Amino acid sequence: MSLFRGSITVEAALILPMFLFAMLSILMVCESVRLSDNISVILHQNAKELAMYGYASKHIKAGSMGKAGSVAFSETYVRSEVQKGLKNKKQADSLICGGNHGIHYFKSEILKDDLINLTASYEVQLPYAFLGAGRFKIVDRARVRAWTGYDNSRTEHLGTDEALVFLTKDSEIYHKDRGCRHLNIKIMTVKRQELPAKRNKNGGKYYHCEFCMDEAGIVVYLTEYGDRYHESVTCSKLKRDVYSVPLSEAGKRRPCKTCGI
Which terminus in the chain has less CB density within 10 A, N or C? Predict the structure, then answer.
């Protein structure tokens, strides 16, 4: 009987250390993932800050930008912000090969195509390696657009300063404002029995759309400024496929009375 007890003890002595070793390795991998998540959050926060400074770099003269010009666009600034934002600096130094100086930002790009692209690459060395997986590379990225603004009154792709206007298919009207209420219609659903009492914003009645079939459904669809009610929400007269062209290409279309004058 003692022989069998001894064999079980020997097996346990062999398996238990391996089990604990594997658990420690998994635990350290989880800590590495947590570290990567921490660095990603810091990069996104700094990318948003740099996006704000992007406006200053484009519109304010050099020398008067202060922090935006002298600090924000340097790798040193991002490195220091990452170091300050790490929740567990000692653990980060023990996991990352080379500590804070082992994090490389050379793939980062500032204001290329008006984008802030921060990239942090580093190698993690696990103190407890299981099955040889003790060292691996991690790359964390943050990508946002700089606050450089957008001028929708110019057609840079055409190489001209001519103003853009907005059209819809088969329309005889052009619009100067993309936000015009005639381009951004609000579709309302009402019960059919309520239709006779409904009036549009101009006080007019609603008449049956000549493009809709007579379905006699429970509800109909209408808009605030229209004078037609529709049997289907997919009616072509409820759709607005908006596209932009230079004013010179608007042809004989008339300006919108709401936004074009």
Answer: N
